[in-house]
Write a structure and sequence with these properties.
CATH class: Alpha Beta
Number of domains: 1
Structural class: alpha/beta
CATH architecture: 3-Layer(aba) Sandwich
Number of helices: 7
Low-confidence stretches: none
Distance between the termini: 24 Å
Number of strands: 8
Radius of gyration: 17 Å
Strand order of the largest sheet: 1-7-8-6-5-2-3-4
């Protein structure tokens, strides 16, 4: 049986590669947390400028940034920060780690949350598998390293801000049977509304299906359990 997600924290930073990544499930947990009085902020490595077919990056980047800010506000997140790495070319390594560590120092979270960074979107026994994107794979591992980097004064000695070692947990979204879960029954409607804010992205992704219908289907897939419950799963690491 999975364990309940810890509640002994007050401030969280959710880190993702692209606009809309958080909205495919994790936003339901965010809605529950902010409703309970937790402070949550978002950090995006890119602006998702390569993510809309037929829309040039110079147009798509600002558009997707606006959609993400509206989406975050729906679930009670007041701030979205963008690091301006190039969409589609994130590289696991010191440059990304340093930018993430600097952001962690700025936000000083007790909980850092990031998205699934495994090789595939399916459990190991499922084949053929759906390959996860290069950006997702690079970001997840870099976040785990950056939490430690943020507290070390010598790894990146020119990094601005005071070292921060106050992160208690790093939570990585999981697929399959997660070790820890958040009951998100009370956050489902907010999560659907949050994903719906990515209207232009979803209209291009599936022009034949209304955006609201797409959003509800995706949130159902991400949260609905076999017994009719609603949950989002994570694997926890010590900060």
């Amino acid at each position: 049986m999975p364990a309940p997600f810890p509640t002994d924290w007050s401030r969280a930073l959710v880190v993702a590669a692209h606009p809309d990544d958080i909205e495919y499930g994790v936003a339901a947990a965010v809605a529950v947390w902010t409703a309970a009085g937790k402070e949550v902020h978002y950090l995006l490595a890119t602006r998702g400028e390569a993510g809309i077919a037929g829309v040039p990056p110079a147009e798509a980047g600002p558009l997707r940034e606006q959609e993400e800010r509206r989406s975050a506000a729906v679930v009670g997140v007041p701030e979205v920060e963008f690091l301006d790495h190039r969409d589609g070319t994130l590289v696991e390594g010191p440059a990304l780690r340093a930018d993430l560590a600097a952001a962690i120092r700025r936000h000083r979270p007790e909980l850092v949350v990031t998205l699934h960074g495994g090789d595939t979107w399916t459990t190991p026994e499922v084949t053929p598998a759906a390959w996860n994107s290069a950006d997702h794979r690079a970001l997840s591992r870099s976040v785990l390293d950056a939490v430690a980097d943020a507290g070390n004064e010598w790894i990146f000695p020119d990094l601005p801000g005071e070292p921060w070692s106050g992160t208690q947990y790093v939570a990585v979204q999981t697929i399959g049977e997660p070790p820890h879960v958040v009951d998100v029954a009370d956050g489902v409607e907010a999560a659907v509304a949050s994903l719906t804010e990515h209207r232009r992205y979803l209209e291009v992704l599936d022009p034949g299906t209304p955006v609201e219908e797409q959003a509800r289907h995706q949130i159902d897939q991400a949260t609905l359990t076999e017994d009719g419950g609603r949950r989002v799963g994570f694997r926890l690491f010590w900060g």
